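Troubleshooting: if your tokenizer reports a length mismatch, compare your output against this known-good record of 415 residues.
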Amino acid sequence: MKINRRSLIKGSVAAGAFTAAGFPHIWTKDASLAYAAGNEIKVGVLFSLTGTTGIIEESLNKATIMAIEEVNAAGGINGMKIVPIVEDPASDPATFAEKARKLVLGDKCVSVFGSYTSASRKAVLPVFEKRKNLYWYPTLYEGRECSKNVIYTGAVPNQQQDEFVPWLVKTFGKRWSLIGSNYIYPKEENNYCKKLLAGLGAEVIREEYVPLGHSEFSSVVNKFRAEKPDVIFSTVVGDSVVALHRQYRAAGLDPEKMPMASLTTSENEVAAMGGDAAAGHFTSAPYFMVWDSPENQKFVDAYRSRWGADKVTHFVSEPSYFQVKMFAEACSKLAPGDINPANIREAVKGIEMMAPQGEVRLDAATLHTYLWPKIGQCKSDGQFEIIKQSSSWLAPVPYKAYENQTCTEQGLKET
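Known-good structure output:
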């Protein structure tokens, strides 16, 4: 068939009429209308349900789904229901990127809630920056990022370490061993930790990294036994946390003399390893399940009612939950035709709300969150005793380890 200019124009007109009638979200200039089409707002839920970090990410999925159900049960967003599209990236960064493209381009989600590791966040980041979409990231992380396409609701290093590290040095001593999983998050957290230790006159006698999913820690434990550090600072993640703690305990090491101090060991990992394996060790986080507040009691009761009486909440499931409420509040400020990623980002800036951990605020400049640092010691029943807590919320400073860099509302500023 010969194609000339006239037939091409006719075909284009016909195609335009067809798409205008049936698929306006693909071709019309005002693509934002698609995000609130048919009284539904589609969002992606991108947490691993399988693989090495499935042990923790499965609970983030549950907290996200529960928050969506609560918003919908309360009338939705100005009468519109949130429709979650769930994908399992199976703890693989490449699969995260593939699923993110599907959710943004194929499913036309206005936002995606997802990721536990920084490796997976870094993998999806180009998708959201290129397509100008929004990724809601609930995990504690290493900072040093200033994307305008990510809403960060987990803790950055200053919010976990500024009180934790000095307290540990004062309480246990100045000889430290650092053990972490081998990717960007543990290395950057340890970089910040070493800066704090240097200022306190403490020393690092060992710094070691193991692969994600690593489960054989006998050589590491033997080094602990031989070197006798005052503190073992752990940024091991996923099911490796379970293996490390069990092998530490099996070796007969004593947390009263050589505690593991973690940024990544939550009630969820403790439930998997058993309370005896975690008892006596410490974690720094903005949230613990035992936190005594009406908001937290409501959250815990609702979570157990929805997912099972044996389930636990923790410091990543909690921001997974409240960030959905932030999303809903931001969207409620917008008319249906104005619901798009850019407008949601502007609407969420400065939002304050009462979360289970306390009142939180989304910082307009950095898109990170004001949080409440706490230090907990694990007990044999699998819960933590909160032994120290901040007197007020703490501002996020994602570049605190890098004095010449600042995250601003306009982007990264270097001096």
